[in-house]
UniProtKB/TrEMBL annotation:
It comes from Novacetimonas pomaceti. This is S9 family peptidase. Belongs to the peptidase S9A family. Residues 471-683 form the Peptidase S9 prolyl oligopeptidase catalytic domain. The keyword Transmembrane does not apply. PANTHER family: PROLYL ENDOPEPTIDASE-LIKE, PROTEASE FAMILY S9A OLIGOPEPTIDASE. Residues 5-412 form the Peptidase S9A N-terminal domain. Pfam families: Peptidase_S9, Peptidase_S9_N. Keywords: Hydrolase, Protease, Serine protease. InterPro entries: AB_hydrolase_fold (IPR029058), Pept_S9A_N (IPR023302), Peptidase_S9_cat (IPR001375), Peptidase_S9A (IPR002470), Serine_Peptidase_S9A (IPR051543).
Length: 689
């Protein structure tokens, strides 16, 4: 099928806040969409037929890349260890870990006794569970504190509606009935007799915390969040002394405490929510360490609060606020406080004793990532962390905070071979239209010419304060080894340069994310890393919003655009309060149902609304039928309107995964097919431009 599908048009007039718009493809949204999330076979047949026709068209257009896709999958698979295991993490008399068997798509969770590493005990073989389903994902999997039970949350549709199962480790038998309709988040209480879990409502919002007494099927409501814009969470402190319930949106948070000694006690609020104030608690001795932006600490600070009176009035300074030093995470040990901080798109790990003595872990590479890798034990001096960079494979370390001795636990092996010396990483700064310096991380081979002749893939995200870390990617090497440059534009809306960098790309400032991306593309062209019309842009989810905007703003810069599960129907989605993420997203984008200024702003950049007759580049949009975050009809509607309006001969394609959601295929090898498709499209787009 080389003739593109022509979607029928059924004009729908929408009046809102005195404004009128028309949506001729609104019919693609199944009125029964909530049921479709749970059972994809319920999708209305005319919609299903259209999506199948789009898939057939995309396959036909890219049929000449079939061999290339297979070769790319083989290359990517060749860089992966068939048999893989990850460093075991100590917890009392046991070490817990996960591993992959040869040819396995999914991990095995296992443990061994501290004194008998050769005697493995399997806790969960995900492959055995996944074999029964077309789609399978595990959101969380962990043991309880007394090491008798193992629980995991499974999703069999891609709709992120999880079922929690609890098993007896010794017998393998189920303990009680499964917990249904979970968000995927749960935690064992420190007493090992209770499990706290998060219930999701019909809109996909984590809205309630329940407590289950293990062994029974009775669930007790502990906390319910009434604000439709807030999500709830639950965790146990590393000290094992408290259970913490959190509720919040992108601006504001609130925490509630339950003593671990009395898990059936009602939760007590620490500090009532104040708009714009976020705080996060970490128990430390007789205090809580509070990670917060209170009192104007835009890049966050650390404070101490007594555990018996942790309200804000009693917070005292521990680590002062420094503008431009963004504290991203915090972790407590019996005698140590550890936090991760970011400055100018790179990060470091800081350790401090109770006496205030501190030291730092960092790196001299141009761009790199240091991340805390967690652990179960509180009374220890051992810190686990991971180091990587675009040229350096992942390295897992155990670091003694007292002696400062570092032990390499594991280094990511690339079976087909990888010499970091063959590659180079650059960190450039592009000047945005308003004068801000936008970081760019670039990976290329030393011998790739910087004269504009090499093709360039430019990735961007820029939302929710999520930073795109300069990580190592074996998949990226398939392009780089073919003479490409791979670059990440760290645009505003992320937090690469601090929380202010996020605020500079959200709400009224959202357009900065798009103009930053364009500035990065132009700067890379000026530095010889690419050329106009020889760039492929790539964005996922909220990064797809950037792709939609730049397609409308500067289509001339790009040979192709990849938009995976793209948020491109912003105005209609933010005007539909029944959708899973709409009320919680209003602080991010604005509320076009009540605020005329927000309506006008969103309409001014919304990818779907701003499609006009233009010479669009080749476009590949990818969606998931059971995606509760970016619903399948967003990319489908966008593609239909683009195809109707494009003035170029370049194809506009849609590929919908009819058996998956936001995250696509979940198997470690199956997911390579999506990556290979994207790479093959990029190569095809450049070669046919």
């Amino acid at each position: 099928m080389t003739t593109p599908p022509v979607a029928r048009k059924i004009p729908r007039r929408i009046e809102q806040l005195g404004r009128v718009r028309e949506d001729e493809y609104a019919w693609m949204k199944d009125d029964n969409w909530q049921a479709v999330l749970r059972d994809p076979s319920l999708l209305r047949e005319d919609i299903a037929a259209h999506l199948r026709a789009e898939n057939a068209y995309t396959a036909a257009v890219l049929s000449g890349t079939t061999d290339l896709q297979e070769k790319l999958v083989a290359e990517m698979k060749g860089r992966m260890q068939e048999v893989e295991s990850y460093p075991a993490v100590p917890h009392g008399p046991w070490y817990y870990y996960s591993r992959y068997d040869r040819g396995a798509q999914y991990p095995v969770y296992a443990r061994h006794a501290a004194d008998a590493p050769e005697r493995e005990q399997v806790l969960l073989d995900v492959n055995a569970r996944a074999a029964r389903h077309e789609y399978f994902a595990v959101a969380a999997a962990t043991h309880n504190p007394d090491h008798r039970l193992f629980a995991y949350a499974e999703d069999t549709q891609g709709s992120e509606i999880y079922r929690v199962r609890i098993n007896d480790i010794t017998t393998g038998a189920a303990v009680g009935a499964p917990i249904e309709n979970c968000s995927g988040a749960f935690v064992f209480a420190p007493d090992s007799r209770h499990l706290f879990w998060i219930w999701r409502d019909d809109h996909g919002r984590p809205a309630r915390v329940y407590r289950r007494e293990i062994g029974s099927d009775a669930d007790t409501l502990v906390y319910e969040e009434k604000d439709a814009g807030f999500f709830v969470g639950v965790a146990a402190t590393r000290s094992g002394q408290w259970i913490i319930i959190t509720s919040g949106n992108h601006d504001t948070s609130e925490s509630w405490l339950i003593p671990a000694a009395t898990p059936d006690a009602p939760p007590a609020c620490v500090e009532p929510r104040h708009e714009g104030v976020m705080y996060d608690l970490h128990h430390w001795g007789t205090d809580f360490v509070v990670l917060t932006n209170a009192d104007g600490a835009i890049d966050f600070t650390l404070k101490l609060a007594p555990q018996d009176a942790p309200a804000r009035a009693n917070w005292r300074e521990l680590v002062p606020h420094e503008p431009g030093r963004y504290i991203t995470a915090c972790c407590t040990f019996a005698d140590w406080l550890v936090w991760r901080e970011r400055h100018e798109a790179n990060c470091r790990i800081v350790m401090q004793t109770r006496q205030g003595e501190r030291h730092v872990l960092g790196s001299g590479e141009a761009a790199y990532d240091l991340s805390l890798s967690g652990g179960y034990e509180y009374d220890t001096t051992e810190l686990r962390y991971i180091y990587q960079s675009p040229t350096t494979p992942r390295q897992w370390f155990a670091y003694d905070m007292q002696t400062r001795a570092r032990r390499l636990l594991k280094q990511q092996d690339v079976p087909s071979g990888h010499n970091p010396a063959d590659y180079r990483c650059w960190r450039l700064m592009a000047r945005a239209p308003d004068g801000q310096e936008v970081p760019i991380t670039i990976l290329g081979r030393h011998d790739t010419p910087r004269d504009g002749s090499a093709p360039l893939l430019l990735y961007g995200y820029g939302s929710y304060g999520h930073a795109i870390e300069p990580d190592f990617s074996t998949r990226t090497l398939s392009l780089v080894d073919r003479g490409w440059f791979h670059a990440v534009a760290h645009v505003r809306g992320g937090s690469e340069k601090g929380w202010g960098w996020f605020l500079g790309g959200r709400g009224r400032n959202k357009v900065n994310s798009f103009t930053d991306f364009i500035a990065c593309a132009e700067h890379l062209i000026g530095q010889g890393f690419g050329a106009k019309g020889k760039i492929v842009a790539d964005g996922r989810s909220a990064g797809g919003m950037v792709m939609g905007a730049i397609a409308n703003m500067r289509p001339d810069l790009f040979a192709g655009i990849v938009a995976v599960v793209p948020f491109v129907d912003e105005l209609n989605t933010m005007s539909d309060a029944s959708l899973p993420l709409t009320p919680p997203e209003w602080p991010e984008w604005g509320n076009p149902l009540e605020d005329p200024a927000a309506y006008d702003l969103i309409e001014s950049y919304a990818a779907y609304e701003q499609v006009r007759p233009r010479d669009y580049p080749a476009i590949l949009a990818m969606g998931g039928l059971t995606d509760p975050r970016v619903t399948y009809w967003e990319p489908a509607k966008w593609v239909a309107r683009l195809r109707e309006n494009t003035l170029s001969s370049r194809p506009v394609m849609l590929r919908t995964n009819m058996e998956a959601g936001h995250r696509g295929a979940t198997g470690r090898f199956d997911s390579l097919k999506d990556a290979a498709l994207i790479h093959a499209f990029a190569i095809w787009a450049i070669e046919t431009a």
